[in-house]
Design goal:
By secondary structure, this protein is an all-alpha fold. It is about 40% helix and about 0% strand.
Length: about 60
């Protein structure tokens, strides 16, 4: 499996209420681990991001 690109948007701020980056919606752990994850693991994280955006309370 190929490695999907990082979803980083260069808006790197962790929201206090969710623990997710305000730009890419990943956790600090997901961001830190990204270079070491397999393509499958990256895909699993990417699949979760749209739900995080949709369920985010402004």
């Amino acid at each position: 499996m190929h490695h999907p690109p990082s979803p980083c948007t260069s808006i790197c701020r962790i929201a206090q209420d969710t623990g997710w980056c305000e730009g890419c919606q990943r956790t600090l752990e997901e961001i830190a681990d990204w270079p070491m994850l397999s393509g499958h693991e990256k895909k699993q994280i990417l699949e979760q991001l749209p739900n995080r955006v949709a369920n985010r309370v402004p």
